[in-house]
Amino acid sequence: MRPVDDLTLVYHRPSGMTHVVSPAVVAILDLLHEQTLDIGEVCGALAQHHDLDGEGDDIARVVGARLDEMAAMDIIDRIA
Amino acid sequence: MIADHWPSRTLRIGPASFHLRSPFRRVIDEVNALYRDYPAATNDGIYDYAVNAVPSSPLRRWIKPNLRLECDFEPFDTLPLPVELGMLGLEMGMNLQMAVGYRRHVVVHAASSAEGGKAALLIGDSGAGKSTLSALLAYREGWRHLGDEFALLDLHAPLLHPFPRPISLKNASISTMEARAPTDRFGPVLEGTVKGTIRHLLPPAAAIDAMQTPAEIALVVAPHFRENAAPAWRPMTRTETYVRLAASSTNQALMGEAGFEAVWRCLAHAPAFDIIYGSSDDALELFETLWRKVTA
User: Fold this and answer.
1) What are the residue ranges of helices labelled H in B150-197?
2) pLDDT tens, A2-21?
């Protein structure tokens, strides 16, 4: 991952593709590095790291949308 | 259908070498004239790419002669060319080998020029003005022409490697450069091509002599010529620069992580600007203002 301006370039080794992603995606990728989490655990960790207690619904909405995008880009695996 | 006794010419241009062949002697004679300053021997006696301009059928060698390309990497769905455009066909063939087959550097569809040990990369769509600006710089004191068609990014350091082919001038830029470069550096006028009238301009001999010497990338510029436009510039973000460089590269994605890192290294090392101008004098003044700003 290489930061550029307010965004980050992510080179995805398995596909050889490069993605330009937002800070929220970088935060989620950091959390999912070498571990599997469910959406509640991702939201909980982000709320704790970014001092967002009490914003649960908004976090879940944003994280859900980003996870959908990341799965569509094949940079995360969704496990049923 | 390729015969060993056909007229041929081996060419070394920067880090790549080509073997050109055609049964039509005039085509190879034109290549020899245009590439007279380029070495005919490769470092190890082996050339990288074969590019042959052959008749579209055996009869078309003798009756209504025409030619098509037979290369290591071949074009698809192209119409045969008249023999008068045979040299242009071989040029297209060499471009195709670099765009599709070359893997020793990241190939970017861009022009590049160096002053001292530092280089500027000129990116943009065909017709935007990068070839003209690079031709203006090629014949400006202190500047060394690195290439007008492809820039070669090093895979390990922020360096540009020269690929100083003859500069392909189109339409109005031909007269612009005829007023600035010696007459004996120009090739024949090629009319009726898909890009209009084309005339090649041989770079100064010093640029060809130095074609094994890379330069450190210091500036990225996206030039835009617009008739009568007032000179203007704006900085490009790194994100925009990355996207434009990656989109301009013919092999970056194929080079994997090394390709990604080479493009990243380029934009991390050199600021980028988009410039607009309406005349050659404005182009040079604007470009050199930015150059002094980033290399001071």
Assistant:
1) 172-178
2) 998 889 999 999 999 999 99
